[in-house]
Design brief:
The chain has about 160 residues and is an alpha+beta fold. It contains 5 helices and 3 strands, in the order αααββααβ. The chain has 2 domains: about 50 residues; about 70 residues, no CATH class. Helix content is about 50%, strand content about 15%. Strands 1-2-3 form a 3-stranded antiparallel β-sheet, sandwiched between helices.
């Protein structure tokens, strides 16, 4: 028995018809609802999921390699974008990466510059603030404790 077994037994269970609409065809596709049949179907579905996850992992590595080569080749060819046969567009855009190098320094800066409520600042929020400061001549430069590096972002738009 788990820690919440007794509590769970005391709570109402939503009926099967409370399932979201997108799930209903999958519920009706289950033909063998015996315990053994359900376990076998679950095991088979998990195996498919694990196989697909491995394929996705490998495909992500292929995509990462292609992105690096595309960025290099586009840069060498002075290309910003290229249309894909059959539709879609691959483009590259310069971007900036923000990395905190000194947590204490950035904390002091945050407190001194009105960001004390953001001391557990989301990395995307900090990145946006620092990038804006880097391009704003009146901002006084970037805060201490961060480092900016340039990188090229690749995007694909259109149908794949």
């Amino acid at each position: 028995m788990g820690k919440y077994t007794e509590l769970a037994k005391s709570l109402p269970v939503p009926p099967d018809d409370a399932s979201p609409d997108w799930l209903k065809p999958y519920l009706t596709a289950i033909t063998d609802d015996s315990p053994g049949g359900l376990v076998a179907q679950f095991k088979a579905a998990r195996a498919v999921k694990e196989d697909l996850a491995a394929q996705v992992k490998d495909n992500n590595k292929t995509l990462m390699a292609l992105e690096r080569v595309i960025i290099r080749v586009f840069g060498e060819s002075n290309l910003q974008s290229c249309r894909a046969e059959g539709g879609g567009l691959v483009s590259i855009h310069p971007d900036v990466n923000v990395k905190v190098t000194d947590r204490d320094a950035i904390r002091e800066w945050a407190m001194a510059n009105g960001h004390e409520r953001d001391l557990n600042i989301n990395p995307q929020t900090l990145s946006g603030i620092v990038k804006q400061m880097a391009i704003d001549p009146d901002a006084g430069g970037i805060p201490p404790g961060v480092e900016l590096t340039a990188w090229t972002k690749l995007t694909f738009s259109g149908k794949g």
